[in-house]
Amino acid sequence: MDDQGTWPTPLPPEGSTAERDFDRQVMDELRSDPQALRQIGGVKGNVWIVLAPVIAVILLIPAWMQWRATGSGLWLAVIAAILVVATLVWVSRVKTVMGQARQVLGSHLVGSVGYGIGVVRSIHFPDSTNDDDAAADLSSDTDLAQDASPRPDAEPDPLVSRDVHASQEEDLPADVPTVEVELTMAVSPVQGKGFTATLIQRYATVDALRLEAGQHGPVRYLRRDPENTTAVETRLEPEAVQKIYRAAALN
């Protein structure tokens, strides 16, 4: 195997990005973990977020009444001091609590999300009962796109950057035909035993024609249910993908 994967990059699901879908699954995983919720709720300093405003109001009421009764500027200074101190204490505790909560979240999420290398075993088009007919239909639908694509022997346009070419799969026009493909793949995880997963990914029709058994690349999944939560990983840097390949090979 190479260290960058051999399959085409899928498109985000309609109406949402793949990252948001997976992050939503991760948050559902967190909400289903009572221990994590208890730790987040028990972060030290939570009580001061409520007490600081309450104590400030209790002190402000008599100070305000004294200022109204005497008109002394001293009481105005006391009121200002109470507001400043209460604000500083509240902001400080919020920052501290948020930092501690992020640590708790990080410690639990590290054990919830797994990575591995998936190898395509079979390809199926859910909208068609015959995969050969579906592939033929896809081929006819993409004739125009293939005719319009640059020829392999054509000179590259020096005015077009590599970054633009790399982002074409992510920023496809709305009229580009797409298709959902059901992939069955064998997954070699970084940790744990291998498993077989079935997932549905959306591809540009041209890319769907390039899919074939034996292609491979990085995947992510939730450890509690890897067979049903596996998805193609598209947001990792090349260095991270290399590490996944090496770790999966050593596992």
SSE layout and pairings?
Blueprint: H1 18-31, H2 34-41, H3 46-70, H4 73-110, E1 113-124, H5 131-141, H6 143-148, H7 162-166, E2 178-189, E3 195-204, H8 205-208, E4 216-222, H9 226-229, E5 231-232, H10 238-250
Antiparallel strand pairs: 1-2, 1-4, 2-3, 4-5
Helix pairs in contact: 3-4
Give me some keywords for this one:
alpha+beta, 251 residues
Please describe what this structure looks like.
- The protein is α+β, with helices and mostly antiparallel strands and 251 residues long.
- The protein folds into two domains: 37-110; 113-250, no CATH class.
- The chain contains ten helices and five strands.
- The chain has a five-stranded antiparallel sheet.
- α3 runs antiparallel to α4 (73-110).
- The two termini are 15 Å apart.
- Residues 138-172 have low confidence and may be disordered.
Question: First CA to last CA: what distance?
Answer: 15 Å
Task: Estimate nothing, just give the exact number of structural domains.
Answer: 2
**Shape by Cα distribution:** elongated
C-alpha-based Rg, rounded:
28 Å
Number of separate strands = 5
What string gives the helices and strands in order?
A: HHHHEHHHEEHEHEH
Helix coverage percent of residues? 40-55%
- Percentage of residues in strands: 15-25%
**Major sheet:** 5 strands, antiparallel
So what's the oligomer here?
Answer: single chain
Structural class: alpha+beta
Spatial order of the strands in the main sheet? 3-2-1-4-5
How many helical elements? 10
Biased composition (Low complexity): 136-149
Region (Disordered): 131-172
Biased composition (Basic and acidic residues): 150-168
Keywords: Membrane, Transmembrane, Transmembrane helix
